[in-house]
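Quarterly update from the structural biology core.
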Amino acid sequence: MLVRKNFSKFIKGLTIFTFIILVVGALLFLTILKNQFLLVFPFVLLFYYSSTLVLHRYMLKITRNDVSRFSFKFMMLSFFKMFIYIIFGVLYIVFDEENAVNFLIVYLILYVSYAVYEVKSVMKLINESKA
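Predicted structure, tokenized:
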């Protein structure tokens, strides 16, 4: 029951976080960064949103089953996720070389944003499981 409650809370927070990024991104692309608009922006945002949800769900299962191996599993899963992100980014650049620089900047900003959000959430999860 606690896992479901934590995951529901995480979904709500991540959805709000993603919506804020979507609004800020849309405002920037409609005003200041009009010439750098990326049609793929909402899809990249959806990609980060869904991959973060999947990873967090798995992290909740790990804390429930094997807290002692949590750090190792978290690092391995993060490495795998980063590898998937690199493949996705490289594939996009191969197919749209014209927007490569704009894409990489947006992609990196989103990567850092979601990584920080995820680490903060995982740290909160670890602290709650210790209590």
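The chain is about 85% helix and 0% strand.
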